[in-house]
């Protein structure tokens, strides 16, 4: 017969017994129930919420319809009990008192977790938790502290999830060994203004929308005041990390390093920063991980890699990832080896440490400078490239807005994150560029108002136009209303009339002086706010050059002329529009109106009927688009003189002979054929016609595909067909040349970005490596 348990032994057994077993045993023994309150509860985890209690693997929760459910998480076993209480708060009060009330000793738990308390729940007054870790979700942790045994402090870990400011100066937060903070709201202002003052050695902050200024402020504080060796700060943020990386590169580019062994998770092909504090310590900054979490891209940045690879544009045919220190080797291979001239439409430099080989001259149209210092690359840019068509940069203190390259660019694109500082706002107002696009997270109305006030005070030049991108059109309407209120004494409304004849606000006009005024209006698709300076006598209706109008609506065909008269008539004689598309030949603009255009889309109409209303100054056109049918007059001077010809071939039958006839008809025209289903035989015959007729140098045709998947197969079939004639470019897997004669050859290549196959006649002696084949650019991606 076994010896009976002594009282101390029984107490020890009950204390370390799993809560589920202890509740089960005590409920069946009256003697144990009398001593249960004097024996501590010991468990790994306890969760106390507004409608639930977790004791290790036992979950007890109120379903809000007077049903209490007991669930064992391991086996999903459930027991339901109906209670007669009407108030949910009263039900939970009974639960708290039953499990936690009347105890003379505390509950010992490794991790205590408190969830949202939308109502004031009164815990038993003698509830005392002795814990190692504390997690708080959606409630004020200060209300929980009276129920925590003081001997629990300092905590091993303190975690909080909330959308409200966190009290970082509280002793509980400051003394914890590890602090984990998760902020879930998207805010323009930080909810951790003093995060850099935390003294904890292990800090983890999870941002929904990270602010680069928080990271920079923290690093600067560590650099100024020092930090204890061993301190580690991990920042988790969702979405694209481009603005984080660009900000770090701008601020700390000189601290880039190739150090290894700092962290086992560190990838060697990703860059990192080593910022020296003093002779015995330094700060390491590197990216730990990139993963997908609930549909968001999630990144972690540690302060105690940043990803690098060299590739063509994101939609190019090839892509390769290389270590940072090998990038110059690849650049020399593709750009060097005696090659002196490179033509590229867009050049993007993602890291100023990497530059093209010496002696290489890049002739470019656009320069993307978001993550780098563009002045370092200037020696490699052909002076003939200036002024640039487009200059893109990250809007910060480090960019020199007074540089001639910035001032002379036709279009200026500025990416930014966060609210503008006063000095940056003044720099923005002084920009002489007439076309500027801002791509921020959001703009406040007072920032737009300050820009307008600066323009009024300094009499901004006529023709200046700023575009501010927004995520939704409702924000633009809100800005318009606030701008209207701010300038209510001097502004007049731009009105538009809907189909019911009801007038509604679409923009405002603000006078500058007797010579000029400011238009402020919204544009949909993409959603952006336009602020531009026009002549005070402006009476023309100018359509947005991007093809997006101020308003868009569908109207019955019979009412179309009414709307045309409203928008284009009324005594208006001049209308300037980038692209003119006629969808029905029955509808024509009002008599007397002259359209000045760049492009004519004639896919659904006979363009000859509309020639009387087109200003002769529009010719030659930049683009003429039409359906490829017998009805189109390809001998017309308008067609012949157009710089580019776009032919749609999706809705009509066409013969090989018609296509080949067209190939002979235009000697040097740049023709784009748009067809969903191309057969390689048709393109093959097209090329053979060029060879037979010794096509003139400069001739160029593009075959547009419906999917990039169809392009490689067609390209490979052409490569096989001309296997005996072609000269394969060893540096590119996606182009080859076919000799015509001693003076010329045909260059065939694919452009995946636009899903098109290009056939072009070039000089036989042409040795220039055309990066524009792929609209190629160098990019270091993070």
UniProtKB/TrEMBL annotation:
- Lineage: superkingdom: Eukaryota
Pfam families per the UniProt record, alphabetical: DUF3557
Which InterPro entries has this protein been placed in?
Answer: DUF3557
Q: Spell out the protein name for this chain.
A: F-box domain-containing protein
Source organism (scientific name): Caenorhabditis remanei
Q: What is the lineage of its organism?
A: Eukaryota, Metazoa, Ecdysozoa, Nematoda, Chromadorea
């Amino acid at each position: 017969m076994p010896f009976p348990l002594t009282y101390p032994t029984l107490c020890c057994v009950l204390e370390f017994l799993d809560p589920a077993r202890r509740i089960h045993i005590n409920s069946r023994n009256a003697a144990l129930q009398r001593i249960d309150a004097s024996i501590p509860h010991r468990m790994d985890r306890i969760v106390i919420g507004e409608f639930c209690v977790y004791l290790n693997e036992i979950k007890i929760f109120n379903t809000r319809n007077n049903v209490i459910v007991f669930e064992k998480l391991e086996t999903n076993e459930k027991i339901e009990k109906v209670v007669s209480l009407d108030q949910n708060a009263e039900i939970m009060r009974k639960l708290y008192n039953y499990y936690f009330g009347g105890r003379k000793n505390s509950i010992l738990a490794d991790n205590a977790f408190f969830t949202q308390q939308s109502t004031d729940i009164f815990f038993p007054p003698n509830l005392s938790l002795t814990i190692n870790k504390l997690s708080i979700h959606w409630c004020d942790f200060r209300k929980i502290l009276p129920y925590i045994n003081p001997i629990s402090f300092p905590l091993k870990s303190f975690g909080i999830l909330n959308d409200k400011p966190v009290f970082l100066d509280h002793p509980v937060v400051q003394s914890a060994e590890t602090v984990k903070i998760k902020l879930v709201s998207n805010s323009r202002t930080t909810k951790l203004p003093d995060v850099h003052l935390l003294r904890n050695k292990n800090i983890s902050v999870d941002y929904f929308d990270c602010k680069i200024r928080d990271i920079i402020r923290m690093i600067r504080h560590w650099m100024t005041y020092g930090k204890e060796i061993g301190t580690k700060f991990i920042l988790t943020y969702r979405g694209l990390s481009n603005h984080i990386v660009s900000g770090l590169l701008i601020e700390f580019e000189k601290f880039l390093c190739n150090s290894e062994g700092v962290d086992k998770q560190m990838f060697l092909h990703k860059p990192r920063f080593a910022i020296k504090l003093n002779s015995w310590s330094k700060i390491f900054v590197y990216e730990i991980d990139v993963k997908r979490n609930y549909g968001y891209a999630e990144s972690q940045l540690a302060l105690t890699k940043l990803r690098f690879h060299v590739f063509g544009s994101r939609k190019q045919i090839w892509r390769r990832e290389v270590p940072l220190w090998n990038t110059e080797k690849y650049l020399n291979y593709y750009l060097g080896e005696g090659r002196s001239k490179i033509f590229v439409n867009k050049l993007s430099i993602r890291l100023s440490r990497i530059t093209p080989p010496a002696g290489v001259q890049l002739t470019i149209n656009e320069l993307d400078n978001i993550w780098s210092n563009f002045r370092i690359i200037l020696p490699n840019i052909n002076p003939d490239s200036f002024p640039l068509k487009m200059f893109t940069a990250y809007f910060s203190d480090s960019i020199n807005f007074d540089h001639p390259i910035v001032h002379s660019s036709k279009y200026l694109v500025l990416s930014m994150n966060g609210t503008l500082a006063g000095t940056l706002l003044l720099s923005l107002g002084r920009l002489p560029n007439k076309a500027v696009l801002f791509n921020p997270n959001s703009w406040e109305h007072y920032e737009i108002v300050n820009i307008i006030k600066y323009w009024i005070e300094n009499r901004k030049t006529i023709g200046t136009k700023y575009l501010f991108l927004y995520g939704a059109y409702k924000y633009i309407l809100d800005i318009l209303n606030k701008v209207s209120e701010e300038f209510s004494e001097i502004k007049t409304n731009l009105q538009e009339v809907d189909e019911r004849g009801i007038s509604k606000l679409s923009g405002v006009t603000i006078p500058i002086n007797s010579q000029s005024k400011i238009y402020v209006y919204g544009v949909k698709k993409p959603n952006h706010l336009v602020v531009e300076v026009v002549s005070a006598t402006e009476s023309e209706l100018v359509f947005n050059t991007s093809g997006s109008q101020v308003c868009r609506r569908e109207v019955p065909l019979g009412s179309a002329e009414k709307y045309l008269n409203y928008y284009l008539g009324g005594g208006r004689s001049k209308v300037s529009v980038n692209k003119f598309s006629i969808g029905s030949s029955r509808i024509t603009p009002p008599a007397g109106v002259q359209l000045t255009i760049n492009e004519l889309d004639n896919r659904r109409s006979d363009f000859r009927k509309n020639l009387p209303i087109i200003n002769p100054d529009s010719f030659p056109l930049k683009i003429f688009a039409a359906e490829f049918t017998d009805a189109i007059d390809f001998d017309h001077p308008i067609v012949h003189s157009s710089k580019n010809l776009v032919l749609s071939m999706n809705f009509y039958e066409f013969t090989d002979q018609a296509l080949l006839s067209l190939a002979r008809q235009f000697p040097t025209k740049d023709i784009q054929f748009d067809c969903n289903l191309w057969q390689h035989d048709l393109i093959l015959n097209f090329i053979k016609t060029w060879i037979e007729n010794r096509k003139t140098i400069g001739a160029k045709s593009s075959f547009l595909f419906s999917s990039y998947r169809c392009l490689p197969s067609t390209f490979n079939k052409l490569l096989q067909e001309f296997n005996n004639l072609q000269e394969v470019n060893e540096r590119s897997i996606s182009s080859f040349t076919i000799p015509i004669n001693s003076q010329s050859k045909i260059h065939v290549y694919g452009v995946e970005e636009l899903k098109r196959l290009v056939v072009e006649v070039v000089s036989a002696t042409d040795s220039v490596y055309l990066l524009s084949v792929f609209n190629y650019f160098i990019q270091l991606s993070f």
